[in-house]
Structure formats: C-alpha cells, structure tokens
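User: Please go through the entry that follows and flag anything odd:
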Amino acid sequence: MDLISYAELAVMLVNSPDRLAGLEGLRVLLQESGRPRQAARLTRADLDVLRALREELVAVFEAAAGGQEREVVERLNALLRRHPVHPQITRHDDEPWHLHLTEGGRFADQYVVGSVMGLATIVTDLGADRLGLCQSPPCRRAYLDTSSNRSRRYCSERCASRANVAAYRARKKVGQDSGGR
C-alpha cells in the first residue's frame, strides 16, 4: 500500500479550494488524481464532507509549517478518531491483490481516511516537518517533503524558480545600491 499517494490526496485537497465550489469541480479533481471511477458516484454530501476536511487539513499544514509538531499530531489523531481506518484487500485495474484503506461507505469517507492515514504515516515515519507550505509569497500551497535531505521549501519548480529570481534581483539591487555610494 502506497501511503504517500494517499497523503498526496490531502495535498491536492488543500491546494484545490476552487475545485470544491461544486460537484463538477470535484469530479475534475478526481480525474486529475487518477481516481475517475469514484467521480461518478459523488454526492452533495461528499462535497460538504470534503470542504470541511479541507479546512482541517489546512490547519494541519499550517501547524506543521509553524513547527508545532504536537498540534499536527493532535489534529491528525482527532481526524483518525472521527474516521477510523478499515483496511480491505482488493484487486482492480489488472493489479494484484493489495490493501486499500476503505472500500465501503461514501466516497468522502474513503477520501478522508486515505488522506488522514497517509499524512499520519508520513508524520510517524518521516516527521511533521515533512508537511509544508510553500515559502514563495504569496503562494502558501501545501506540499510533502519526501526528499532525502529535508530540503523542500516550495510547492513546485515554478515557485522555487520565482523565489530564486526574486532573491537574485534583491541581491543585485543591494549590490547596485551599495556600489553607487
């Protein structure tokens, strides 16, 4: 079972508030996440649950970005208590038997459990500091740092490049200002 892919569901949800405006946006999000089978059975109740989950996950990532490890753990534990994990063995898409975290219930239940369990696994295996918010102002999109040296600071190459260019320009400006005196 690839729990990092489940944690990536949490990141996608945090980074896609616009997709939660309606069911069609949520269906597109699921298509992009490689879960088209689930998109067909979405309901308004699923959308409401995922909107609430998004707010709770944003708080988890904000706590992690603020170095508040205990708060990250408390928030994830609260979510795990509300949404217990029910693993099941399954097979689909010509894959061998493997574990999924839930197969029954509403789609939102599966998404919640997968997202929270994925984040909990990353926190316990790698540390809460592996959950982050992009440091390129004003972005603040969530990311998972799965690098070997804990070096990730940006949600994407685009934001990293933008931040590096801004830093370069700032250094160049300071050099020009001090050189002209």
